[in-house]
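Input record (Table S2, row 271):
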Amino acid sequence: MNKVILVLSDALRYDTAVNQMGYLGHLVETNQASLYKVTGELPSMSRPMYETVHTGLPSSAHGITSNYVVRLSNQPNIFQIARQAGKVTAAAAYNWFSELYNRAPYDRVEDREVDDPALTIQHGRFYSEDDFPDVELFAAAAMLVRRFSPDYLLVHPMGMDYVGEKFSSDSPQYRKQAILQDILLANLVPEWLGRGYTILVTGDHGIDADGAHGGTTPEVREVPLFAVKPGRPGEGDTGETISMLQIAPTVLHLLGLPIPGTMKQPWVTVS
Ligand SMILES: [Zn+2]
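Output record (zinc ion complex):
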């Protein structure tokens, strides 16, 4: 099977995920999932970290050093390696992912909905407004699973980032958005496990009480990694801290694909 769904929740802080996401917490405390703390790379900005999560490289190495570097990735990455191996790739994600892996700059009409086996992200449903509702985003992801059975699916909701920047991370709105995403996952994870997917839930960076990110504090660096495998027990809260550079090789290992020499960090053995 070797199928993977990566839920990359934009601006999901580690502490907020642990405190507010009770369904995932249930899977952890009953040893159906494993929980790690991830130390994010720098700068704690979105587009650089999207590329870091998918290449296993720090920003100075992959060259996407700010949100304003608008070009295709030029490094080995999960989508490219999976597609070249004949796997089916898909994403329900912000349009910057289309720019990193399909085409730059993004064309809001031409690129927002694509189904083309020649593309690096073969089945894409992209949005370009930061307040795009998480409910709709998760529904698009669920549709992609049922319609195309992708081997690798990226699910990228923007709700935590939008609400966190508007109201601060220390706000009822931010905490309630984490609860909403947890409810959406509770409705989908059982189906996805039943279809044989390993599900990873993580973030690209955190966010602080100013509603900002980009710096080096734990609030903007630390994100969770929840791992749930079909038909296999987890390890609960492992107490381990891993590097964001380990996400890409971990996904490739789960997909049963070779890990390129550019990804120098070890994969995480999610049991
Ligand atoms: Zn972000």
